[in-house]
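Fold this sequence, please.
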Amino acid sequence: MSKHPNAQAHQVAGGAHHRPLNREDYKTLSLSALGGTLEFYDFVVFVFFANVIGTLFFPADLPDWMRQLQTLGIFAAGYLARPLGGIIIAHYGDKIGRKKMFTLSIFLMAVPTLVIGLLPTYATIGIAAPLLLLLMRVLQGAAIGGEMPGAWVFVAEHSPAKNYGLAIGTLTSGITGGIFLGSIFAVWLNSAYSQEEIHDWAWRLPFILGGVFGLVSVYLRKFLQETPLFQDMQKRKAADAELPIKTILREHKEACWLVALMTWVLSTAIVVVVLFTPSYLQKVFHIAPAAAMKANAVATVTLTIGCVFWGWLSDKIGTKWTMIFGWGGMTLTAYMFYLGLPGEETLVARYALVGFFVGSISLLPVVGVRAFPVAVRFTGLSFAYNMAYAVFGGLTPMLVSMWQQVDVMAPAHYVAAMGVLGAAIGFFWPMASRGWQPKVKAS
């Protein structure tokens, strides 16, 4: 039994509270981050080639708006599949091991990605083409639903407590790096090949390569070790209890609401600032596509750096003040960026700055992992995160688009409001700082 009164709440490093990061930790972190990068790349690369996919997998006589709607519907199906996939993978992660499910999630992403790259088009097999594409997208969504919470739990339970935030921030930076990798591949493909070549065959390359590299990552994850906390839990037979989701819904509602609200902040930051804004810059402020994509790429880099920084800072000054500085800064820089548009002379610098503060999204897993006890941690984080992301990630683009019709600064107001919410959670909600606490029985 630990001598520390709150050891069970803060035991994110197998009890090794004061040891430094060692060689095994670096291997775990690097392999986990690499897998996360490749898996998130596999998930988002679809959106970069949505227009080409729409022309190839749906009837040629469909109106453009209908084809685009159906293509985006298939893309959205991946998000809708996240909660179910995340809950199932997390259930078995709490029952039979983190490592097995961590490996399974990337396998479930790599194979459908590879299949998409090899699928016959509508001209070859008719209606079966979009149906198979939809099936592959659903499998991808199920995989990503288990991957992100699984990766956060896996790395958190391996890391020394004093480097807990840094480890999770570094892992999150690897995951967000998948967006950057997808955008860079799209830019390269459009530069190296003509639109005819991309339409005929080159669009398949990012999916085939993503699938192959994903399978390589499956092999590399064989060299990871099960987390010390799960091994300890198995020895105590704690994994033989009731279904983890039942425990979560009965005993950990506060933690679920905490993670859900923080997911609202995270999904807004990613969807609006990173994914929505490039087209917003082009349509509303008539910024050239090349300039918009360049600024977005730089912001994605600073976002990746920010994930590491804000995780590291939480180790140094605590989660409470890091949330206040990080998400409060996101509010201020969001207004600085959007109110200054078009301002093309400083566009890249302002976009990069808000991107850096968006990196404070890494505070969600810092808070979320320790909000649940070890026995139901994977299930709790996965359930709350994926359910909230399915709702907020799906509604945010529509909400911002409608709001924008009456106020062109809608993206600024929405992102800023979420920054205020994130900072307020850090300041007013004790669980965000201290994590789950075991109930003390009266003697």
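Residues 253-285 form the longest helix (33 residues). DSSP finds 21 helices and no strands in the chain.
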